[in-house]
TrEMBL record:
Locations listed in the record: Mitochondrion
GO BP term, example: translation
Protein name, UniProt field: Large ribosomal subunit protein bL33m
GO MF, one annotated term: structural constituent of ribosome
Claim: Ribonucleoprotein is one of the keywords in the record: yes
Originating species: Laccaria bicolor (strain S238N-H82 / ATCC MYA-4686) (Bicoloured deceiver)
Alphabetical UniProt keywords: Mitochondrion, Ribonucleoprotein, Ribosomal protein
Gene3D superfamilies from the UniProt entry: Ribosomal protein L33
Protein backbone atom coordinates (compact mmCIF):
# COMPACT_ATOMS: atom_id res chain seq x y z
CA UNK A 1 0.00 0.00 0.00
CA UNK A 2 1.45 3.38 -1.02
CA UNK A 3 1.80 6.22 1.47
CA UNK A 4 -0.27 9.36 0.94
CA UNK A 5 1.59 12.40 -0.34
CA UNK A 6 1.47 15.61 1.68
CA UNK A 7 0.10 18.70 -0.01
CA UNK A 8 2.58 21.37 -1.13
CA UNK A 9 0.47 24.10 0.44
CA UNK A 10 -1.10 24.69 3.85
CA UNK A 11 -4.18 26.72 4.69
CA UNK A 12 -3.27 29.13 7.48
CA UNK A 13 -5.17 31.69 9.49
CA UNK A 14 -3.80 35.25 9.69
CA UNK A 15 -4.88 36.65 13.08
CA UNK A 16 -4.99 40.37 13.90
CA UNK A 17 -2.46 41.57 16.49
CA UNK A 18 -5.05 44.17 17.58
CA UNK A 19 -6.71 41.19 19.34
CA UNK A 20 -10.13 41.86 17.84
CA UNK A 21 -10.55 38.23 16.79
CA UNK A 22 -10.64 39.21 13.11
CA UNK A 23 -8.72 36.94 10.74
CA UNK A 24 -8.00 36.19 7.10
CA UNK A 25 -7.35 32.71 5.72
CA UNK A 26 -4.72 32.17 3.06
CA UNK A 27 -2.43 29.53 1.59
CA UNK A 28 1.31 29.25 1.86
CA UNK A 29 3.93 26.73 0.81
CA UNK A 30 4.55 24.01 3.39
CA UNK A 31 8.32 24.61 3.24
CA UNK A 32 8.03 28.41 3.21
CA UNK A 33 8.53 30.85 6.08
CA UNK A 34 5.73 31.81 8.47
CA UNK A 35 3.59 34.64 7.12
CA UNK A 36 2.99 38.10 8.54
CA UNK A 37 1.38 41.02 6.73
CA UNK A 38 -0.10 44.45 7.35
CA UNK A 39 -3.77 44.28 6.36
CA UNK A 40 -7.01 46.10 7.12
CA UNK A 41 -8.92 45.17 10.28
CA UNK A 42 -12.51 46.45 9.95
CA UNK A 43 -13.19 46.13 13.69
CA UNK A 44 -10.65 48.85 14.54
CA UNK A 45 -10.96 50.52 11.11
CA UNK A 46 -7.22 50.64 10.45
CA UNK A 47 -4.34 48.62 9.06
CA UNK A 48 -2.67 46.34 11.59
CA UNK A 49 -0.16 43.50 11.58
CA UNK A 50 -1.60 40.03 11.00
CA UNK A 51 0.48 36.98 11.96
CA UNK A 52 0.08 33.34 11.00
CA UNK A 53 -1.40 30.64 13.18
CA UNK A 54 -2.51 27.19 12.15
CA UNK A 55 -6.06 26.87 10.86
CA UNK A 56 -8.14 25.02 13.46
CA UNK A 57 -10.89 22.54 12.64
CA UNK A 58 -14.42 23.64 13.44
Amino acid sequence: MAAKNKARTLIVRMISTAQTGFFYTTQRLRQGPRLSAVKYDPKVKQRVLFVESKKTKK
